[in-house]
Structure formats: C-alpha cells, structure tokens
Specification:
Blueprint (H helix, E strand, L loop, with lengths): L17 H14 L7 E8 L2 E9 L4 E6 L2
Antiparallel strand pairs: 1-2, 2-3
Length: about 70
C-alpha cells in the first residue's frame, strides 16, 4: 500500500490550548504505532512575560525560534 501523508496546521489565539492539543494527539498516535514527524513551537516566559518562542521537533530537538531583548 502506498504511504499516505497527512499535514495538519493548528491555529488560534494565545492560550487556547493549541500546543497541548498537538502534544496529546501526537502521543495518542504514537501509542497506536502511527509514525509522526514534525515540529511545534512553545512560548518562553521570563518574570511572567513572554520573552520568545522555541521550536521543538517530535524527535526531541529544541532550538530558539525568537527572543525579545
């Protein structure tokens, strides 16, 4: 059977649970044995304020995406 590729983009305002949704869906798919690849962003906060974003891959790599000075 040919491989089927599915692409998903999750959008919405800050704080509605987009990252949480992605993490839970990926975990559920992986538990079923479904291969997953991709990345998501996570907000970085310092002293209670947003200071930037990191990008995380589903393989566990993390890098700075953006920071404010």
């Amino acid at each position: 059977m040919a491989a089927r590729y599915k692409h998903v983009a999750v959008t919405g305002p800050p704080g509605v649970g987009k990252t949480t949704l992605v993490e839970k869906v990926v975990k559920a798919l992986q538990l079923r044995g479904s291969p997953c690849s991709g990345f998501y962003t996570r907000e970085v906060r310092e002293a209670g304020r947003r200071s930037g974003f990191d990008v995380l891959t589903l393989t566990g790599q993390c890098a700075v995406l953006a920071r404010v000075k």
